[in-house]
Structure formats: structure tokens, C-alpha cells
Amino acid sequence: MARRRKLYEGKAKVLYEGPEPGTLIQYFKDDATAFNNQKKGIITGKGVLNNRISEFLMTRLTEIGVPTHFMRRLNMREQLVREVEIIPISLVVRNVAAGSIAKRFGIEEGTVLPRSIIEYYYKSDDLGDPMVTEEHITAFGWAGTQDLDDMVALALRINDFLIGLFLGVGLRLVDFKLEFGRLYNEHDEVQVVVADEISPDNCRLWDIRTNEKMDKDRFRRDLGGVEEAYQEVARRLGVLPEAGPMDLKGPQAMQ
Q1: Nearest Cα to 160, choosing from 71, 237, 64, 90?
Q2: Which of 33, 79, 34 has its CA nearest to residue 54?
Q3: Helical packing angle, 145-167 and 46-63, nearest 10°
Q4: Partner of 79 at 20 to 30 A CA spacing, among 5, 16, 50, 157?
Q5: Could you read off the pLDDT of 160-213 as tens digits, one per residue?
Q6: Mean pLDDT of the chain
Q7: Percentage of the chain surpassing pLDDT 90?
Q8: How deeply is 114 buried, as exposed, middle or buried, from its count of CB atoms within 10 A (0-12, 13-18, 19+)?
């Protein structure tokens, strides 16, 4: 494997310089973190499964006209993506009370919300990714009003689509987190696109019949069966790799 220049390493992925200008290679790791990096572990094969799941979901979104940074999957653990200017705001869409919103407002987990709720979080590990308002975002210059309008419109459209897609394979989309970036063309025109990944790492997915958790909450809450839950999501979506979980180590990431 040719030596590549590492540009950034996060908690779950590594970004390398891409083969063409304006492209990056996104490498999926097996590392798992929770509670702002306070809890760490390894979920065997997670990187391979999330690569496949995110490829599938990003491709489906592209087919309905949602712009994303995804170009194509390269191998078991890597994707070719467009280089974007990341907007430092995570947008969370909530359909059912779970996690922090249930705790903050004393709502019983599993309560269906009156309507989908959108929350914004400032992306800062040092600050614990604090929740922020649109006023914070625009006042501090993290994103403009047009950026936010585009992000919200895309998030609601993605939510509607994914609710139906997951329902079709027996899963309830409880909530999910989206990352966005600005993509510039040769005329310096800007487009807000979906970036990062969409996978059980950043979606809460419950079995529609049993409410069994099929996502990273199994790691957060020490429920066990984490690898099996990720594999089951991939299986239901029809993208489970033929290799077994112990064979999903893939190519070695290079510095």
C-alpha cells in the first residue's frame, strides 16, 4: 500500500489525503467511545460494518437528491469522499425520547415526541459538545442563517426518508446525529452537504417489535451483544459482509 498523508484522526475515523485534488480517503476504525471520550473500547468489525452501512445510506440519499460528500467505497474500511469545509455544529433529530433528552426533561424513555425535534450541538471535545441555539451559532460565526436553513431542510428530509427505510426492515429510528460541510465548486459557489457517516454509531435504532437497542447504546450502557447488533442492522439492510466478525480487520491504516 502506498504511503499516504494522514490529515486528521478522530474517535472513529481517520482522514487521509485523497488521490485527486478535492478528495479524501475516510478510514473507519473499530474504536468506540462514549460520554465525551470518557469510555473507550473496541467493537470488533465495527469499522467494516459502518463503512458498508454508511455507503448504503449515503447512496440512497443521493438517489433522492440529498447532497453528500460520499463518492464511493474503496475497500472494506475506506471510502472516497469529497473534501468539504466542516461546519462545527452537530444537528440531532429526535423522534422518540431517549438518552439526554429523556434525562433533561424527565420524559420516560421510549415516549414518542409530539413532533420531530431538532437540537444543535457545538463540536468541541474540550467543552463536551454543548447544546447551543441558532443565536449562538450565528453570533459566533459558526454558520450563517442560510447554512442553518439548508441544514434543517436537509435534516427533516433525511429524517422522513430514513424513518421509512428503517421501518421497512423492522427498525425504529429513535434519533440520529448529522454532520454537514460546505462544498465549493470551481466558481466558488457553496453547497451545504451531508458529511461524516450515518451508521449505528450516530443513530439510535430499536427493533420495532421488541424495542431492543441495535446501536451504540449497547456499548454505552454495557448491554452486551454490541458486535451482533451492528451485524444485525447490516444484515437487515442487506449489506452484511461475507466475512465473519473476526475476519473484518481489513487493510492496516498507515500514518
Answers
A1: 64
A2: 79
A3: 110
A4: 157
A5: 999 999 999 999 999 999 999 999 987 788 999 999 999 999 999 999 999 999
A6: 92
A7: 85
A8: exposed
Take residue 245 and report the three cell numbers written for it. Answer: 466478525
Question: Which of 136, 138, 158 has the alpha carbon at shortest distance from 148?
Answer: 138
E strands within the chain?
6-9, 13-17, 23-28, 31-34, 39-42, 70-73, 78-82, 85-86, 89-96, 112-122, 131-132, 171-184, 190-195, 203-207
Dihedral sign (CA 234, 203, 77, 69): positive
- Least confident piece of the model among 8-12, 25-29, 37-41, 127-131: 37-41
Q: Where are the domains of the chain?
A: 6-84+226-242, 85-207
Architecture of domain 85-207: 2-Layer Sandwich (3.30)
Please give the model's pTM, rounded to 2 decimal places.
0.91
**Fold of the domain spanning 6-84+226-242:** Phosphorylase Kinase; domain 1 (3.30.200)
